[in-house]
Amino acid sequence: MLHNYLNYFNLIYLPMRGFLLFFVMVCSFIGAYAQTSLTLTGIVKDNINRPVPNASILIKGTNIGAETDAGGNFDIKSNSSNVILIISAVGYETQEVPVKENKKLNIILAESNVGIDEVIVMGYNSVDKQHVASSVAQLNMEQAKTRPFLKMQQAFSGTIPGVTMLQGTSLPGSTFGGINIRGISTLQNADPLVIVDGMEQSIEDLDPNQIKSLTVLKDAASAAMYGSRGANGVIIIETERGTTGQFKVNINAWSGFNKPVDLPEFVNAADYMRLNNEGRTYQGQNTLYSDEDIQKAVSGAIKTVDWVKEVMPKTSMVHNQSANISGGGGVGTFNLMLGHLQETGLNAVEGSQKYSARFNTNINIANKFSLLADFYVKKYQYDRLLDNDDGHGLYKIAWRMNPTQQVYYDTDLPEHYILHNDLNPVARINRGGIKNYMSDQSTINLRPRYNINSKLNVEGNISYMISKSANKRARKTFKYLDITGKPISIATNLVEASQGVSESQLTARALVNYTDDLRDGQDKIYFTAGTEVMNYTYTDYREVSKASFFGKLNYSFDNRYILEATARADGSSKFAPKHKWGFFPSAAIAWNAHNESFLADLKNSGALSNLKIRASYGLIGNENVDPYLWEEIVNQYGWTMRVPNYEFSWEKQKQWNIGLDLSTLKDRLSFTAEVYDKFSYDLIYDLFPVPPLTGSHTLTTAVNIGEVRNKGYELSAKWSDKIGNVNYSIGGSFFDNKNEVLKAGHNPTDTLIFSDTNDKIWYKGITLDNYYGFESNGFFRDADDVNNTSAKMANTLPGDIKYVDQNGDGIINDADRVNLGDPFPHLNYSISLDLSYKNWDFSVLGQGVGRRLGWIRGQEGFPVLVDNATNALGAPMQYYADNRWTPDTPNSRFPRVWTGTSTNTYLSDVWLSDASYFRIKMIQLGYTVKNIGKSFKNTRFYINIQDAITFTKWEGLEPERVGITTGPEKYDGNGSYPRMATYTFGIKTSIF
Prior knowledge:
By secondary structure, the chain is mostly beta strands. 10% of the residues lie in helices and 46% in strands. It has a 22-stranded antiparallel barrel. Strands 10-15-16-13-14 form a five-stranded mixed beta sheet. Strand 51 and strand 52 form a beta hairpin.
């Protein structure tokens, strides 16, 4: 065991060593100029004697600076004891402190009325948090930057009320999981809109260390500024920028290993033989295995092969290095952000690697004119097996193999693989070939601004992004031999390459912003108006164009009554000619009750610092569909395949929200509550069947049909305090969402039967992604029970599921299927604990789902792979084998074992299970060293454990994966790349 941990240490340490040695040399070069004879020391506290960590200390007129540690302490090199120190920190007023002599300084910072964390980026402008009336939430980026994320989506799990991210896979190069804000209300892509520095961008491209602020716009009033793109919620991201007067290098590096947490446990070879014989006996077939064969398996003469472990010979490793180099002077500031992320898979082929560079600069061209020029490049690569290039195919094949099947022939020939029905996943790893996917993205973003005066400015935004992709495939010739050494199959030599579809995005925007204090500072107004055009061009000849006009007003009267009003008009080429434009207005009001005179005593005593009541209502849309859906499609024979729809238009959503924000007990306790109602209508279904025309087999069209309502609530609270030298905070959230179809067609009584699935149906009162199947009434006990039951399916045998005849017609068919429930997570909750003591810090984050119904699909439930053909491959799970029906256990959990076709494979309540869970998302322990040498400041060492502990009653493998029903990560229960727990060691430091 010790040897294994030493190996892990070497794997973690060695890749980081070269990176850190490089920066040691850099910091030595940077720090050489700061070698002086005096050391000025001090401590920075707030007005209630709490230390202020991460405060910036700068010697005025120089680039010499330092940061306070967790206890507020600092020391700074100086060549003179007669200097002026500039002290600044988030949430506090900047202070200049003259130093006349070399003694320890005690500096008290006054709280700022509006700190950086109290400014909300709402889209095209920023508003003081106290003047916001709509529903917005911010991710704590300081905490997020301490966690080793492989994908930015992971930061949303258990951190923001109303936002869910259920991770379905850990496959290198995969999406990991989608983000949903306040439920799903569309049949189309439900991902939120992500805006990075004013540009639409994928959240997967982002490194948390490059992000300054992340704001989620949750209701219609906040998201209406994005009109037709806001129905799924909006995520606004601002990346880090440089600061004037201080040259600084921030480094964050971590490495670790992944350990699978959801591996299947299949039966051994002897039990497989018994179960196979058992199923064939029930079905009146000849058995395959003799008692002698079974005894050989028991004795080990026939080896039990765990095929899943055979395809995972390696430990998956992860390595991340990032550096931010920033500084600036009177002309402007800059921030160069570099990142590298590498992950290896569970075998020699799988893996991914990403390089990124972001350069943000602020240039002061003249007294009133400035330019924000940002550049971003990313190179991404991931490797797959040639024959299973979705990343999951290898594991699906491994699940199909039964434990009696051996990997190699028992001969002296090298790599003498046994092909079982032309399948051998180990051979596919070693000799099947490699497919390498590559993508590049480049972005330029220019934002010129002219300040007409201190209150009024005009701003432009021109951005261009291009994404390219390609793949290459390679395989060497290899001969597969039979037991006698004769060739039976040949993998031929292959070298190929192809280019994917490239995408370019061009955006041009013009804005006018006006901010002013009125009535001697008693009122404040924020006004933004602008226009925007966007163009998306693809190399497969697709093109999408958009145009918009928008305006927004925020008005605070006497800092008590707040009004927000937004209006946006959007036009899109995706829709029919007379339906290209939509109008999306919204309004919100709020009352800052804590500023009322009758609450002055509570406010002055610190018992109440914030009490805000909010309400909003608005209309937003969803245009996240493929282009040209409204148009006709004709095949090469002239037959119509899709009927045009000249009424095709946006999905629309009306939403109201009521919220309460409370801070009390001298800001130690904060609480937020929200209730909302989202009514979505004109939903788009692009496979709606229509009566066929002459010469056509089937016809579909894209229509606006159906209505869905999402209602829910969100609660969150946090308590922060100090006991002696221990600072602590405890936070938690609880939220739920109810989804209901109100109309499934043109009339409220219509029923929509989906053409692409038999397990979902729409009618009034059902959930959007419902389970639609058969209700069961136990299992057939014996032959008499089968013969005496008229309502049964053909070829029913004892031990099969007894389905309920809902309409009493004596026949079991589709008319007997009913709504069995919905797959959405309910009663979502999270809890966090943060502790700090001197230089130590400790954090825990837990996230869970209190109620969820999951479908145990495929081989996670069935004893065989149901492939609609042989239904005979694979080995049963041990859990199924222990809980299957037999004549001696008629009240078992699962039906009998079977081979071939079976009436048990239909969706029924037998295969539904409790998928609620509680997961320790993160456990982290850190230690900060104030100074290492003359260059490293506030160096933090930490260890982190991610997703290692889960409590659940789920009878499948991974409860988070259950609800993923689309895309390459779709859950089918027939094998996939395993979900991982990640164990990492990291270093974070600053050089200045």
